[in-house]
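haha ok so turns out i had the wrong file open the whole time. this is the CORRECT one, sorry everyone. sequence first:
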Amino acid sequence: MSRSDGHGHGYGDSARADDGPYADGQTRTRLPDRPGDPYGGARRGGRSSSRSLITVVAVVVLLIAAIAFANRSGGRSPAAGGNADKPKAAATAATGKQPVQTKTGGIPSGFAHDEQGAQSAAANYSVALGSADMFQADQRHRIVNAVYAPEVATRRQSDLDSAYSSEKFLSNIGLSKDGSAPAGQTFVSRVVPVGTKITSVSSSEATVAVWYTSLFGLSGEASTNPVTESWYTTTYQLTWVDNDWKITDFQQEDGPVPVGRDQKASTADDMTKAVEEYGGFTYAR
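then structure:
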């Protein structure tokens, strides 16, 4: 996606039949045939609501300025045979640096002043920016002040408050005007990093790409927006300031998206329990 103050993905995709694969290569998920469970039971006749939710997810994940944004850049697959000089993949498991012990505003901080520290910072910051806390004003302010460079945080704060306080936007994803979920439902917004890649680094600047999956939606018996999964890569520009890596800018694009297995989607109860019982991680390189 071209550089901008907002995050987003394609609008206007036409509805597709539920029983067929998406034209863009995505595969459908089979919902459980459990009567009375909105995650299964009554199947939706078309993909309109699902596609709308996917669009909303794209807006939500690391939303920075507003709901309006444009000019997605299309990625190109490398030619067969590839470039022998391209960097080799590096293991995502920790490779020497221990998880940081300090936190700022509840978010890991004090990362190492090297490539591993920059990658760890980018992974941890993506988790915070993609969390449900971003929908609560006080929590959002805490996150932005913790992950952005001081000169950027102040500017972002106003844009974010405007975007996340839009009643139309909140209504479209099933939340009330104060960002809370309906009674009996649990709002889920999580980013789970799969891997990181550093593309440039100096003593004061670093560019790090984070590939991750995003879970987004409402779990609960009455939910009409069940939790769905999407895949993105966000590339962060980081600067070394106040003895830590902080975000100054970013670009986001879809994928890489794996082929989905034809697994049954979990019930609303199972999804809610999982969200409540499974916590997150502190990521280290």
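The two ends are 26 Å apart (CA to CA).
again sry for the mixup
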